[in-house]
Amino acid sequence: MKAFYLLVAVMASTLGALAQGQLGIKAGGSINTVRYRDADPNNASIGYYAGAYTLIRLTQSDLFLRPEIQYSLKGYRSPLTGANGQVTCRLNYITLPILLMAPVGDKIQTMAGFEFGYLMKAVEKYHNTKNDITSRFQHFDWGLNIGGAYLITPTLGVELHYNYGFRGLVKGITVDGNGNPTGTNRDGANRVVQIGLFYALSSPSSGAPGNPRF
After folding, report:
1. Could you say which of 1.10.10.10, 2.40.40.20, 3.30.43.10, 2.40.160.20 is the CATH number of the domain covering 2-200?
2. DSSP 66-83
3. CA–CA separation, 184 vs 142, rounded Å?
4. Angle in degrees, CA 29, 35, 41, rounded to 5
């Protein structure tokens, strides 16, 4: 956990050091599920995200680096075994998307890259009952992130992202015929669709990397 806090500190320092690039904030809602190999598909849950980003020109052509840091609420819903209703699992992450961005014309942006996450807390909820289930999950998560954006104004835009997490989310315990633990089996992968708004707080200073056609 200390290593991740160090990573967040480095990321925050990088955002500040790259202030000559464009800085902005972002927030929105998400549709989340977790996919397992053998279990039945679970139902989607609604979450949200909020964070900040910086946009830095990499070359003289229209290619930009967009590192981000955000809080992201993921999770899923599943039927309760032997009873009516559903259990909601809330997965609270700090995520670090590292994306390449290329504009298409004056209004559209395309993005792709990796997203790294650290699970802060996992909570299982049924009616008014809540249980901390953080120990069932791996703390670190990572996956692919692809998306696009449309500029409504020079500083305001709407974005759509899809995060395809790689397997290894859940720490499963394998047992023998007598029920004795024999090892661990990692399974499960986040699947997240995000839609929201982003807003540019600053523009590049003189001589610094420019905006993508802003």
Report:
1. 2.40.160.20
2. EEEEEEEEEEEEEEPTTS
3. 19
4. 95
Q: What is the spatial distance between Cα 106 and Cα 76, in angstroms, rounded to a whole number?
A: 37
Report the largest interatomic distance among the alpha carbons of the chain, rounded to a whole angstrom.
70
Residue 54: count other Cβ atoms within 10 Å of its Cβ: 24
Residue 176 CB burial class (10 angstroms; 0-12, 13-18, ≥19): exposed
pTM of the model: 0.80
Other Cβ atoms less than 10 A from the Cβ of 113: the count is 17
* pLDDT per residue as tens, the chain (214 positions): 555 555 556 555 555 544 557 889 999 999 999 988 766 667 899 999 999 999 888 877 788 999 999 999 999 998 776 567 788 999 999 999 999 999 998 899 999 999 999 999 999 998 888 999 898 888 999 999 999 999 999 899 999 999 999 978 887 654 445 555 444 566 789 999 999 999 998 764 433 334 444 3
